[in-house]
Amino acid sequence: MKEYLTGEDLFSYLIILGVPGKSKRFLLCEGDSDCAVLDPHLDDGVIETIPGYGKDSVIEAIQIAYDSGFTNVAALIDRDWGKSRRKPCDLAVPTDKYDIDATVFYAGDVCRRVVSAFCDRDRVREFLATHGWSSPMEAVSALAFPLGVLRKLSYDEGWGIKVAGTPFDKVAQPDCNGVDLSALVVSAIERAGKPRISERDVPDVIGSVSRFMAQVEDISDYCCGHDLNSALAFLMRKKWSGKASKDLIERSMRGAFSCREMLGSRFFKGIHGAFGVPEGDLFTCAS
Fold this sequence. Notes:
- By secondary structure, the chain is of the alpha/beta class.
- The chain has 2 domains: 2-96 and 265-286, no CATH class; 103-257, no CATH class.
- The chain is 51% helix and 6% strand.
- It has 14 helices and 4 strands.
- Strands 2-1-3-4 form a 4-stranded parallel β-sheet, with helices on both faces.
- Strand 1 (25-29), helix 2 (32-38) and strand 2 (47-51) form a beta-alpha-beta unit.
């Protein structure tokens, strides 16, 4: 039922909590995973996270709070590529990358630390050298990037296909160095409930994806955190002698996101700015 919460529902919850009359600050987040990244670094005596279970509901709720004159409520939302029916107000702070898990993945040495903890060092080095990658982050991004582009184009064009949960076992190239676009598109069509395109459209979709990918300067802008961690789990299992589920990797990534990465993030500064307080007043990292 949580996914059906509206912005009005979320705002009503703030009223029930007595938010308007409290000196404590409240940060609305899109989901529990966002809260899990932030909570270890927050001074819970002065600020608390609240999951809103959806970008639109959080954007709507923070807009109502803004219009109502609340000064102790702000929000952290996925930056993605503007995937919302509503325009965020100034109290909504975007993540550095596509979403919170992508932000964590690309922060500092987080990815390298997790790979070192789970994988065989020599196998990782061999794979990277063979394919010309400078880091595990680059190798994983090469797998996740096409999914992100396909997701955006499907959203823009209304193709109605399903990219989330793509099985890399079925769409990766034989050497695991990238994705077979034909297999990716077919999988997204087959797993969709009611796709608006069919397999006869696959060549045209591949062409659109390829052209879009060629124009992207920073591929990390299109990589979803769930895709990245799923791709990492796949590479660990297939090539790097590591055994960890996507869920375990996501949790490990969040745990490896240290104060150093937090202090270096743009959203750290943005959250303080949204509340109108000096940097360091809300996070234990800066104390």
